[in-house]
Amino acid sequence: MADHNDFGKIAEDLAADYLQKNGYKILVKNFRFQKAEIDIIAEKEGMIIITEVKARSTDIFMLPQEAVTKTKIKSIVSAANHYLEEFNKDQEVRFDIISVLRDEKRNLIIDHIIDAFQSFDAN
Q: Residue 123: which pLDDT band, with cuts at 50, 70 and 90?
């Protein structure tokens, strides 16, 4: 497996641990629908939290969360709708991004962006 794939897996595990330590219950990891994938589906205070994890070893070109494009958002929203229907979930949904970035000393920095898609217009 390529190094970037290993780093992505580490970032997803780190994000799941972070969410659990902050009171979230992990429902599903790597939920797939058609060509879309949701990294983490969690629950907290009766709300379903759809979480996209983005990792970068450097922010020279862009921050990790900047890699979540409109096309990616549409894909995640579509997969989330399928998950809600398939598992008969009738709860409020929130879309978050967790970015994982290595700093100059190679420490991993987590940034949890809550309600990251709120200003996105899917039309």
A: very low
